[in-house]
Amino acid sequence: MKETLTSHTDYDSLYIGGAWSIPSTKGLIDVVSPTTELPVGQVPLAAKADVDSAVAAARGAFDDPAGWSSWAPAERAAVLRRFADELESRGPETARRVSIQNGMPTSFAMQAEAQFPAVILRFYADLVSKNEAEEVRSGFFGGSTLVTREPIGVVAAIVPWNVPQSITFMKLAPALAAGCTVVLKPATETVLDAFLMAEAAVAAGLPGGVLNVVPGGPDIGAYLVEHPGVNKVSFTGSTAAGRSIGQACGQLLRPVTLELGGKSAAVVLDDADLAANVDNFFAATLLNNGQICHLGTRILVPRSRYKELVDFVTDLAGSLVVGDPLVADTQVGPLVSAKQRARVEGYIQKGKEEGARLTTGSKRPDGPGWFVTPTVFADVDNSFVIAQEEIFGPVLSIIPYHDEADAIAIANDSSYGLGGTVWTTDTERGNTFARKIHSGTVGINAYLADLTAPFGGIKTSGIGRELGAEGLGAYQQFKSIYLDRNALPATAAPGS
Ligand code: NAD
Q1: Does 245 contact ligand 1 (Cβ within 6 A)?
Q2: What tens digit of pLDDT does each residue of 397-445 get?
Q3: Average confidence (pLDDT) over 304-310
Q4: CATH for 265-444?
Q5: 262 touches ligand 1 (CB under 6 Å)
Q6: What pLDDT shows up at residue 489?
Q7: Which residue CA neighbors atom 31 of ligand 1 most closely?
Q8: Measuring CA to CA, how many Å separate 330 from each of 40, 116, 312?
Q9: What's the gap in Å between 215 CA and the centre of ligand 1?
Q10: How many CB atoms lie within 10 A of CB 352?
């Protein structure tokens, strides 16, 4: 593998309370490139005392009577737009840092990590400026009621490594727009981008304590979730961790949004023209080395076109450019870690044992890096482990179906319900089919989340929604102030 890494990025302080502060311990996170297996950076590992400081800073900023939460939405929006500008100017470096940490191909990183965070910040800056935070309603029993939306408080935002900046801003942008303050915990695999993001926040003039960053592992995440100073938890990651966080929040009666795993179906209808949508099909099934929650990794194809479609998917996977994620035409980079590669290879072995037919892939290319070549299994039964469990790597399972009713039954026979796609030349037919899929989101002939629409899962894919106005609502709570209300009219009194 060609060596493309030239720099080592180090930080010795943590972004807490609007300043770069000395960490409470000498603990460090070493970041290793999945491409070269060489170190690329080092940052402090936050300890519990640092989380205490970060929550105290966020609490102080939120509770300050003249602070961020009390500002007019337009004032907050102005800062968010400056934050967007500062992120945009750092976009290429953000993309580079993400690629060298998690193996994301640069073509995707330049969109998802360099551009999307600024776009989403501006979207919520606009939304919160336009959204009426207060509404007077005519009272049912006469008089009127003022309904207000208030920021929910201090938010603990916990994010994974796979698309770290996009996912961070799906939480940060609406939370900050709503007037919340945030303690962000990035995953240990992707921290260098989070520090660059903090530099952008400083340059944008985000007031001290409004955003704090505590890099650490699951133990630090769990400590943050249960911290008494936190009012709301927003988590994206695995279903296993989501269950544990949901349990803790249930015990505390603490509001929580959970964006979890998936095992979505890409349903190819018998009139589909995949060749006309090849880029979209790739993006919906294998983007980011197969490390995206909503990918359609179960490909459902009609028996009437079975051989042709198995060949199509096999040829597509086999033709992808696998290599250094920093090279512009690379389509598939390495998996994030040796552990993740072992997990993916374990599932490939399981697929063979279950009797699925390997049609391409499953190889480690020569040289360093935690690569697995794009892998396709045909003749998969939906009950197989490789069809039921999230693999989180470039491994597709092709499952044949008889008719549309069979396809719906197979698509919905999953514990997950996050994404999904329908491939057809008849959009109306696709629309009708999409309504029958049990999941939070479905795309027709493409999958691209829309900023204006709620994104999230059902079943074990999560609870709650991000994006859209609904994503802002996740960081607000309602208060009803009963105005000029007289006593209950006699006619309305219970029993009258
Ligand atoms: P993970 O659950 O292991 O870790 C995610 C984050 O949570 C990390 O920051 C980690 O340190 C932290 N964490 C882990 N256990 C925790 C706990 N008990 N308490 C508090 N924090 C904890 O997930 P991962 O392997 O980093 O990411 C891959 C998973 O994320 C996949 O399952 C994928 O489907 C899911 N994901 C979901 C979405 C979505 O929008 N639904 C988006 C991206 C990724």
Answers
A1: yes
A2: 999 999 999 999 999 999 999 999 999 999 999 999 999 999 999 999 9
A3: 98
A4: 3.40.309.10
A5: yes
A6: 58
A7: 238
A8: 20, 20, 20
A9: 14
A10: 14
Any ligand 1 atom below 6 A from CB of 155: no
* Whole-number pLDDT of residue 4: 44
**Ligand 1: distance of its center to the CA of 241 in Å?**
6
**Domain layout of the chain by residue ranges:** 9-260+457-479, 265-444
Q: pTM of whole model > 0.85?
A: yes
pLDDT tens, position by position, 130-180: 877 799 999 888 889 999 999 999 999 999 999 999 999 999 999 999 999
Q: In CATH, which superfamily holds the domain spanning 9-260+457-479?
A: Aldehyde Dehydrogenase; Chain A, domain 1 (3.40.605.10)
Contact 482, 145 (CB under 8 A): yes
- Cα–Cα distances in Å, from 62 out to 14, 15, 419? 20, 17, 35
Q: 260 CB less than 6 Å from ligand 1?
A: yes
What pLDDT sits at residue 140?
87
Q: State the catalytic residue, choosing from 293, 390, 404, 466.
A: 293
391 lines ligand 1 (CB under 6 A): no
- Of 88, 259, 390, 466, the catalytic one is 259
Q: Is 290 in the pocket of ligand 1 (CB under 6 A)?
A: no
Share of the chain above pLDDT 90, in %: 94
Catalytic (active site) residue 259: yes
Give the pLDDT band (50/70/90) at residue 490: low
C-alpha span between 383 and 43 (Å, rounded): 43
For the question of residue 293 being annotated catalytic, the response is: yes
Burial class of residue 403 (count of CB atoms within 10 Å of its CB; 0-12, 13-18, 19+): exposed
| Whole-number pLDDT of residue 133 | 77
Domain pair 9-260+457-479 / 265-444, same fold: no
